[in-house]
Protein: DUF2993 domain-containing protein
Amino acid sequence: MRALRILLIVTVILGGLFIIADRVAVGFAEDEAADRLKTNEGLATTPSVSIKGFPFLTQVVGGELDEVEVGIKNYEADTSGATGGTGTANGTTPDKIRIDDLTAQMRGVAFSGDYSSAKAASATGTATISYDELLKTAKAEPVDVASGVTAKVVGLSDGGNGKIKVEVEATVLGTKLPRPVSVLSSVSVKGDTVQVQADSLPNLGVQLAEDKVRLITDFRQQIDGLPGGIKLDKVEAAPKGVDITVKGSDVSLVG
Structure:
């Protein structure tokens, strides 16, 4: 009985030491991966990296991690410029668009022997593009939509039921309308492009051709260079902005 008691005590101690060693190892690996991801993606701040599954050390021996969660608070994604809309105040289109709270779950992460590279078999995630950021795409300069009529988008907000409320400011024959005219718009994704299209046309006080009005109300923004090669999947209007989901396969986490 005494020998059995000693064996149990030793087993508990060794188990505790293994757990401590495992947690120390995973913490070190998470920090190292976060630093390398920051460097690889040129991030302004260090992302969060959380390696799921236990024990970590047995996953390392197998050369593949079950799941890794990555979080980036503010990610500056490359763009190919906006189309539609009315042009920014300086006449250029933005070459970056800020994506907030990007969180990605990467599964089946295989890594090289020297840990210089890691690639996930699949990845899914979520993020948000704020309405203020998306407004840069809609542009700021007034555009002539008819003789004596100019208009521009001045606000984007949540329209409820998955719609975006687009506010248009118009000037008719030199007189600005007393208040912006709003219209509900649908948001969708096609390939690597977010598209915003008015469900109906705003009443600007005069008869206007639909294609002219849609130069103001409708716009789209291509988004390139998401981390690791993940791609846009779905978009939906939400209270704080447009919520996006992303997905990908053979996604590079490091290297």
Observations:
- The first strand starts at residue 48 and ends at 51.
- The radius of gyration is 25 Å.
- The mean pLDDT is 81.
